[in-house]
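Quick one: structure for this chain?
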Amino acid sequence: MFEALLHWLPMLGTLLGAGALGGLLAGLFGVGGGIVIVPVLDAALSLAGVSPDASLHVAVATSMATIIPTSISSSRSHAQRGSVDAGIVKRWSVPIVAGALAGALAASRVDARVLAAIFGCVAAAVALKMVLPLDHLVLRRTIPGGPIGAAIPAAIGAVAAMMGIGGGVLSVPTMTLCGEPMHRAVGTGAQLGFWISVPATVGYLLAPAPDAASLPLTIGYVSLLGFAVIAPVSWAIAPLGARLAHALDRRRLSAAFGVFLLIVAARMLYRALA
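Got it. Here's what it folds into:
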């Protein structure tokens, strides 16, 4: 066990950096930070000798676990500024929990290339939305109700769980397209990340992971070591991102983040096809 832990030590700096950047983005954009943590942790695990079949699953599951404290920290900061729509959270919480649990159970059973393809395609679509000047595009003025209103958060929860993200990269654009102001959509997305991350993490903890024996301190697909390094840093940095979100030019930030996402998407799609 001690030798295995030493094998992980070179990754600590990478994981700390991923946690800091993930927390910053969580506050800035209402995302859980997983959009950054998953590709970084996947690469770090691969460098540590973890098989490609297991590394992405562990990265997704561990990222999802770190989103629990990060989403609490980020949403609390946004709530203090009145930027959380409690009505949307109340209506979306049940379907988003159901979708997240189903997504986690499905992800634990599919090939790593499928997860990489899902991550790459969604990241590319979101990147284009953030790069293009579409901030003021509105498809309707209210969040839909009824069956469609339940299907949307359920789908967001399922896809987010399979990607290891808090869902903000999906829920925030969805809410803004339905007339929700950007700052309130970001704050609401941060709080919805909690309702996605808890059931999804439970699903990954209970998932059978045949390759987990080669990893130290792993339950199911969740690396406790990765969680212990990333989560405290993300928790501490998220409020800073929330403060910056109300002070910086969001168009430039969105464009810069979109370019980064295009790079991440290209890497994941290459991983899926290689």
